[in-house]
Design brief:
heterodimer, A: 222 residues, mainly alpha, MetI-like fold, flat, B: mainly alpha, 82% helix, elongated
């Protein structure tokens, strides 16, 4: 094996573009997935039984099937129902729906950890159930499960490599493309791995910084 | 052109599911065996053991499983082993599983209250004896539910072996979908197959979690 820096610099721009798309896809899916997760968690605790069943089925289906099958079903399967989309849209949709399923369960655990007293405090202020959820309960509930959420985000970031299989030109796809030109499969893949590792480290650091700022209230009283 | 009936599809997926199960078993058992020394090194009092174990876990948890599969596949070819996709997939999935299990088990061991170590020490047990008679039996209780839960991730992880050409459930699904032009039905069925494999494991993990929680308190 002889790994030279030229492998990286020759294709620097390609690696950069792939990395940028990986970051953009992950970031967009985090936003959409978290929104789904909050809605799903509210649905899991709904007073309407059918809403609970549907969100429950969603969570179990997502958590007990591989991401790649979810992706293939959306991209290759849905056109049969007339739902066609480009590979980038399919990747975004699959990643968001996937995160949404896990986030639903994590956020629900957070909501369960909030005592009845908080709900009663909301009600005594004249807030509706939904207002109490949004204004009183949600943020402390998210704070309780923040570590689990950030691990899930990292799983989504790393899982995004799978969307290379429907030709989304993110980091892993770029790696495959480059090695098909330079015939240095192992070295190129090592560089790809190193970039992912760097992304994860930076992401963890950002999550810790967010924790410090957004959830400062949790430490203030202690 | 031959027609694929629903039964043809199901039968072929059933045959392929055997390979998914085999690969999952190899990865889970192999991963458990590798995770044992990694866990011990990770909680060792010697930093020369602790640091490499920490780096091993960070590397495997900080890179995508797909990239690890590529590295095993290309890397083994590079050093002269032109291995079958099964071998490369087994190696990559074993290492991947070991990192996560080691982290789960470390958590379980560290969750045993410090007083238990001190109590064991005061009985003049060696560190190995403390571990074996006092700590591990308690840690096992805490670690068993997340370990069972992780088996679901292993089964789902084997789906990525399809990408390096190993014919398991996902690869068989792709081949059938390409032959039948009916990706909707085929991937729907493949999803059901995975669900049938994973859901019982999820339920088992959940029930273990409940039982251990009741016993622990």
């Amino acid at each position: 094996m002889n790994l030279t820096l030229a492998d990286l610099t020759d294709h620097g721009e390609l690696f950069l573009r792939g990395t940028a798309l990986t970051i953009a896809l992950t970031f967009a899916s985090l936003i959409a997935g978290m929104a789904l997760g909050v809605l799903g968690a509210a649905g899991r605790r709904s007073t309407l039984a059918p809403v609970r069943w549907i969100t429950g089925a969603y969570v179990e289906l997502i958590r007990n099937t591989p991401f790649i099958i979810q992706l293939f079903f959306i991209f290759f399967g849905l056109p049969k129902l007339g739902i066609r989309m480009g590979s980038l849209e399919a990747a975004f949709l699959a990643m968001s729906i996937n995160l949404g399923g896990y986030a639903t369960e994590i956020i629900r655990a957070g909501l369960d950890s909030i005592g009845r007293g908080m709900w009663e405090a909301g009600a005594s202020l004249g807030l509706t159930r939904w207002q109490s959820f949004r204004l009183v309960i949600l943020v402390p509930a998210l704070q309780k499960v923040y570590p689990a959420l950030t691990s899930q985000f990292i799983i989504i970031l790393l899982g995004s490599s799978v969307v290379s299989q429907i030709a989304v030109e993110e980091l892993t796809f770029v790696g495959s493309y480059i090695q098909s030109r330079n015939f240095r499969a192992f070295e190129t893949t090592l560089i790809v791995a190193a970039i992912y590792l760097l992304l994860v480290l930076v992401f963890k650091w950002i999550c810790a910084a967010i924790d410090k700022r957004v959830f400062a209230f949790a430490r203030a009283g202690r | 052109m031959t027609e694929f009936t629903l039964w043809d599809i199901v039968r072929n997926l059933l045959l392929a599911a055997r390979w998914t199960i085999l690969l999952s078993l190899i990865a889970f058992i192999g991963g458990g065996l590798v995770a044992l020394p990694v866990t011990l090194a990770r909680i060792s009092q010697n930093p020369m053991l602790r640091a490499p174990a920490g780096a091993y876990i960070a590397l495997l948890q900080g890179t995508p499983l797909l990239v690890q599969l590529f590295l095993a596949f290309f890397g083994l070819a590079l050093i002269g082993f032109n291995l079958a996709p099964l071998a490369a997939a087994a190696i990559a999935l074993t290492l991947y599983t070991s990192a996560f299990l080691a982290e789960i088990w470390r958590g379980a061991i560290e969750a045993v209250p410090r007083g238990q170590w001190e109590g064991a020490q005061s009985l003049a047990l060696t560190r190995w004896q403390q571990m074996r008679f006092i700590i591990v039996p308690q840690a096992l209780k805490m670690g068993i539910a997340p370990t069972a839960g992780f088996s679901v991730q292993v089964v789902k992880g084997t789906a990525l072996a399809s990408i390096i050409g190993f014919v398991e459930l996902t690869k068989a699904g792709t081949m059938i979908a390409n032959a039948t032009f009916d990706a909707f039905r085929v991937y729907g069925l493949v999803a059901l197959f995975y669900f049938a494999l994973c859901y019982p494991l999820s339920l088992a993990a959940k029930s273990l979690e409940r039982r251990m929680a009741v016993k622990g308190h």
